[in-house]
Design brief:
- Strand 4, helix 9 and strand 5 form a beta-alpha-beta unit.
- This protein has 3 domains: 72 residues; 181 residues, Rossmann fold (3-Layer(aba) Sandwich); 73 residues, Helicase, Ruva Protein, domain 3.
- The longest helix is centred in the first third of the chain and has 30 residues.
- The chain has 14 helices and 8 strands.
- It has a 6-stranded mixed beta sheet with strand order 1-3-4-5-2-6. Strands 7-8 form a two-stranded parallel sheet.
- Helix 3 packs across helix 4 and helix 11 crosses helix 12.
- The two termini are 37 Å apart.
- Helices cover 53% and strands 9% of the residues.
- It is globular, with a radius of gyration of 22 Å.
- It binds adenosine-5'-triphosphate and magnesium ion.
């Protein structure tokens, strides 16, 4: 079976260690390992372990919800004191983006984060800790935010995205208090907390904070809290500031991963996935298009594929034509270069 299909199938398998389906899943993993597909086997293994963990976790939550008890077992997103704005947004597990095409190097690093998290108890027996403070960097539209969502989904962890627009307040001292509140609230709560484009705090100079010293202080508080964080979850910060990253920043993280633009091979794969529900005209040679698209971000490539598909669908054609794809490519070319 094709790797992407197998991965998709595995994501939908739920149950505990003793369920027949889980046993079958493990024998498939073993088979793939025997065939020498070690990376695929590792990936499937991580997904299954995540799903088992997820089903263990969902039972008590369901029971609690039924009897309507103990509100402190449910995480409450802290709010800004003045405007009562939530400091983070929750994204439901089933809405998390996760079908990714990544370079083998990035895929390995993400799998390592997932595996270490799953093995956290075993690691603790040896006085070791999983990687849980991660920095994703690289150009826009190359999967940084998406990878954070994928990790939460694979591990069955709740996903929260920090809302810096609520965190940063124009009232002196309040931004700092919001940041403290947020970190305090997640200390004992296993989740993935995404500090998306966290460097934008530094760019708030023209916002309603007048004192540049205050911004500097907020950034330092955030970095300090990141450094100290030793909670139950995984913190992921992202930035697309390439090259100009402060060396001191890397030191605060357990791992940092660069998200490069896709290679020709990865572009072909993305296009195949994007077009999997439709037919392609036999004159469409994806490899040739991939060559044309080198240097573009994943996001633009997905957009080109979707634009071409939409054009075919609204013209009631069953196949995507060379013209559909050429037009979409030309229209989007300017955006990326
Ligand atoms: N590796 C990938 N595999 C498949 N699709 C991808 C990948 N990376 C990005 N995409 C597509 O691009 C879109 C944007 O990706 P994402 O939001 O993760 O980018 P980003 O790196 O966080 O960009 P930014 O720096 O602008 O926030 C996704 O919704 C998805 O459609
Ligand atoms: Mg992003």
């Amino acid at each position: 079976m094709n790797q992407a299909l197998l991965t998709r199938l595995f994501r939908s398998i739920e149950g505990d260690q003793n369920d027949t389906l889980i046993k079958v899943a493990y024998s498939i993993i073993e088979n793939e390992r025997k065939k020498g597909h070690t990376k695929l086997a590792d990936k499937l293994d991580t997904i299954i372990q995540g799903n088992i963990a997820k089903s263990k976790k969902s039972e008590p939550t369901l029971k609690l919800a039924k009897v309507g008890s103990s509100s402190d077992s449910i995480y409450k997103i802290p709010v800004d004191r003045r405007y009562r704005l939530p400091l983070a947004t929750h994204i439901e597990n089933e809405h998390l983006r996760h079908e990714m095409v990544l370079s083998p190097n990035v895929e390995d690093k993400i799998l390592r984060i997932e595996k270490e998290y799953l093995a956290r108890e075993r690691l603790a027996h040896h006085g070791l800790k999983p990687r849980k403070k991660i920095l994703f960097y690289g150009s826009s539209g190359c999967g940084k935010s998406m990878a954070a969502e994928r990790i939460a989904r694979d591990l069955g962890l709740p996903f929260y995205r920090v809302r810096f627009d609520s965190v940063i307040s124009s009232y002196l001292g309040e931004s700092a208090s919001n940041i403290f509140k947020l970190f305090e609230s997640i200390e004992d709560y296993p989740c993935v907390l995404l500090l998306d484009e966290f460097d934008m705090i530094g760019k708030q100079r023209d916002a309603n904070i007048n004192d540049p010293g205050e911004i500097h202080r907020i950034v330092n508080i955030l970095l300090g809290l990141l450094e100290e964080y030793d909670g139950e979850g995984i913190l992921i910060a992202t930035t697309n500031l390439e090259g100009s990253l402060d060396k001191a920043l890397f030191r605060r993280f357990d791992d940092f991963i660069e998200f490069p633009k896709p290679t020709e091979k990865e572009i072909v794969e993305i296009l195949k996935i994007s077009f999997s529900a439709l037919k392609l005209n036999s004159k469409v040679h994806l490899k040739d298009y991939a060559k044309e698209m080198i240097g573009m971000s994943y996001a633009i490539i997905v957009k080109i594929a979707n634009d071409a598909a939409k054009k075919a669908i609204i013209s009631s054609r069953e196949e995507i034509s060379v013209e559909d794809l050429n037009m979409a490519l030309e229209e989007n070319r300017a955006i990326n270069r």
